[in-house]
């Protein structure tokens, strides 16, 4: 059976750890230095319930409320992973704006989404509570979890990417 193609996009404010999550997920290591992304695609091939998948993760440049939302992110994407850092209030607040921009651009009322609060290893610098994360995720009809690209807690991320792969069929988008 040929591999099924799936594509997800990582969206969020700059420096929240989008690339770090992708690198941890695909390559299994953490990069300490900060290298701002322009745009990058990671590919991971894996088997799930006897089916091969080729998952493309589009790692985008950090966005803020003034960024123009690139129109190609509204096409050909099976699901979106919105990332903020639990240590940055502004990165959290921007998610809602980005989400609404995405709905506007795509003309949809809902998109398949996951909300991720990254950097949860930096608990002492927490600026966003878990409850606030959950509330935003409810508003977005998204799954939610906190994680840390640094401490390799990407297993939850793996789980949700698997959900995207198994259940999101292009005809539903
Ligand atoms: N402590 C901690 N640092 C992290 C974590 N994830 C990323 N970082 C650090 O945060 C900085 C930014 O990480 P990136 O992954 O480059 O962030 P990004 O969202 O891809 O940034 P842009 O490409 O500019 O949008 C880097 O110095 C990372 O090492 C994490 O979970 N915990
Ligand atoms: Mg990046």
TrEMBL record:
Main location: endoplasmic reticulum
Membrane topology: Lipid-anchor
GO biological process: signal transduction
GO cellular component: endoplasmic reticulum membrane
Keyword terms, alphabetized: GTP-binding, Hydrolase, Lipoprotein, Magnesium, Membrane, Metal-binding, Methylation, Nucleotide-binding, Prenylation
GTP-binding as UniProt keyword: yes
UniProt cross-references to Gene3D superfamilies, sorted A to Z: P-loop containing nucleotide triphosphate hydrolases
Superkingdom as given in the UniProt entry: Eukaryota
Compartments (UniProt record): Endoplasmic reticulum membrane
A GO molecular function held by the record: GTPase activity
Pfam families: Ras
Chemical reaction(s) catalysed: GTP + H2O = GDP + phosphate + H(+)
Xref: InterPro entries: P-loop_NTPase, Small_GTP-bd, Small_GTPase, Small_GTPase_Ras-type
Family: Belongs to the small GTPase superfamily. Rheb family.
Name assigned to this protein: Uncharacterized protein
Native organism taxonomy: Eukaryota, Metazoa, Ecdysozoa, Arthropoda, Crustacea
